[in-house]
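Researcher: Going back to the complex we discussed earlier. I've cleaned up the inputs and rechecked each line, so this should be the final set. Can you rerun the prediction on the complete assembly and write out the structure?
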Amino acid sequence: MTNEAPGAIERQLAGFAATLDWQAIPPAVRHEAKRSILNIVGTAFSGCQEAAVTKALHAHLPYSGKPAASLIGRQERADPPLAAFLNAMAANIFDYDDNHAATIIHPSAPLAPALLAWAEAAPTQGADLLRAFVIGGEIECRIGNALSPYHYAHGWHITSTAGIFGAGFGVGALLRLPEAGFVATLGNAAVQSAGLVEALGTMSKSISVGNAARQGMMSALLARDGFTGPPAPLTGARGFLRVYGDAPKLAALTDGLGADWEIGRNTYKPYPAGVVLNPVIDAALELAARPGFKPDRVQGIALRGHPLLRERTDRPDVMTGREAQVSAQHAIAVALADGAAGLDAFSDAAVARTAAAGRPTLTFIDDPSYPIAAVDMTVTLTDGETIEAAVRAARGSAENPMTDSDLEAKLKALAQRAAFTGDVNRLIDAVWTLDTAEDAGAIMRLAAARP
Amino acid sequence: MTNEAPGAIERQLAGFAATLDWQAIPPAVRHEAKRSILNIVGTAFSGCQEAAVTKALHAHLPYSGKPAASLIGRQERADPPLAAFLNAMAANIFDYDDNHAATIIHPSAPLAPALLAWAEAAPTQGADLLRAFVIGGEIECRIGNALSPYHYAHGWHITSTAGIFGAGFGVGALLRLPEAGFVATLGNAAVQSAGLVEALGTMSKSISVGNAARQGMMSALLARDGFTGPPAPLTGARGFLRVYGDAPKLAALTDGLGADWEIGRNTYKPYPAGVVLNPVIDAALELAARPGFKPDRVQGIALRGHPLLRERTDRPDVMTGREAQVSAQHAIAVALADGAAGLDAFSDAAVARTAAAGRPTLTFIDDPSYPIAAVDMTVTLTDGETIEAAVRAARGSAENPMTDSDLEAKLKALAQRAAFTGDVNRLIDAVWTLDTAEDAGAIMRLAAARP
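Model: Rerun complete. Updated structure for the full complex:
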């Protein structure tokens, strides 16, 4: 079988998912899967009470089947596809979730909620769930690699558009689909892949993230029942990659498959803002902590960084917390003023505060030689003095990753902020011991709010 | 307000939907809405027992809420969004449904099932349902006009991608959303618009059609609850039209809005095949009816027609009934052999028969001056003789429309083929009297199979 035959790449991806042995997944990759799940449970706590989630819950609950699955941080329950939808929305709502740096996909939001909802309703061993997570993460990130950078730049919300394939393959792995079932899953998912960058910072963004989880699950469930699509849904002449891509890199789909693991490259965010802002916030917090620094003496700030920093975050006039997550002007203003950049720094109230106090005037200097994780910040003060902060590898980047205990602390802080009354330590322990757990669904019951 | 202000076009479309008066809809347009609904109920009978529908029903029914809505031609019931999903799939599965010639959108499949499912669960007057149908049809066809011809040619299944906006606006009209609610509906729908031409002829195609109905409904229900998107979801820099289009024709969205009615241009299909095949089948049937014509004497056939005829139907080697619906080779073979081209001519068995007997070798002559509804067919016989059939306006085209009684006969034939035991005459009467009906949902109860 060569990649030139129609559907050969699809069958190769499907064969990988159908035959991957748990023992063949390196320990470091298994551990990264657990870190991803720990982080996503935490970010779901952060988003679970947001208006978008509550409104979506109320709109959808009349159309839920048997409520066999939990909602993280909430008391309500829903059927597994709806729970996947709502937990995915909650996990990603602040873009505080994990990040695959090469594509800026948030791999876990569409994927983990689908797996956990299924595992709660159907007996699932922890190792099977982790295996499914690794398979799903591999597929969504490789599809993202094949489409990047055109796809996101064109306006696609890549977490949603690629994520549906991750959820489909992940649930397909739990269902132990045969190779043909995974090919069918690709077709069933390809026809419902959607999501727009235009919607970032609005409630609508969360619909496509939730759909990726729910419809990915349904794509696999349909495939299990023999519901099939075209033989080459990704690589066909009118297939997904040609329609959603410019010059898709087909080799990125299969090179090193089963040897080189994308989920092993996952990263986690210390701040609830666009990942390109991480070094900027690091630099601002560092300056704010310097003895004698006074934010009201700032006249202007120059930022030298990767062009994406300017493209995605030069938003001086944001009015809401959600818009502010991708505003360099607000992020710097609040970090300099408060010396902190947690969720409360990106509330509507915090945004109103920086709008009233005045945000710094920024000059962006595009430098494609800078990695996303680096920035040079030069602050000019009212007396003409300049002070500088250089960040070479932002907290949470691949070079400066959050530690396991950082992730635990992040989850605990987010659970506390959500007034979670469950046992956070048991929840954390359940994630770290997933490899040997008989019942992976226990995580969901531990993460639900107590009635 | 000018169209240059961000979101001005969206607000204009929303204002139209929010304020359109029933009395302002011309009688001919109201009647075309009823013809559309009559036709779509018929085509739902044709598809309701297909494997794709049955499999989708089984996969989704565990996740249905209260079964308040009927499935056309079936005994099962589902919640309104799921009923909309399944009835839309059934209505479009054979592409035997209506056709908006300028875009090749099937306007009713995503739209009417959403409206009828809602009307069955919530008291709805017939005039309100027709008004909602006209509003939804207007929006989806205008969005299609703005994106055509690039969008479909690029690989988008336009019935699905545009249809979700139709269903959203239609259900929004039933909910009597205010202007801002329709703008939100556009954003909620834009982030979940999907569907690929690659999937035509496979079960997966039906997922995106069903999604258009169900997710369009949910887009409006979310908007009713204050779930909002960006201010310019269609026309923004990363909005729907820029991402899914090449050089979108913005004027097509609003020029003549409320005066020039797209649903008034709807057409209906006499054959369950791609609409570009209609003149070809007319010609073949005409030849088959000529005294002394013997299909086994055909050596080759030349077709002069619009380039889309070749692009979409030059498929000599199809193996299944669904693929054969867009195969000129099969359509001609079966029409010449049988002198008929109903649903049974596009069954798997009929396809196997033409494959075994040999299909004619076709030569396509692209002529962009030909309308879609015209073709010249020149048949060369084994003795060298040629015979010709010219079709200037295919049956079912705008120039040669199916009559009301043609549509009634089509529905009756499809109901009979589905072994429907309900009262077809009452059902037909209920559609024709929708203008004055107190309970539009009665159509659904009349169209359901009796237990």
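Model: Worth noting: The two ends of chain A are 55 Å apart (CA to CA).
Researcher: Good, that matches what I expected from the previous run.
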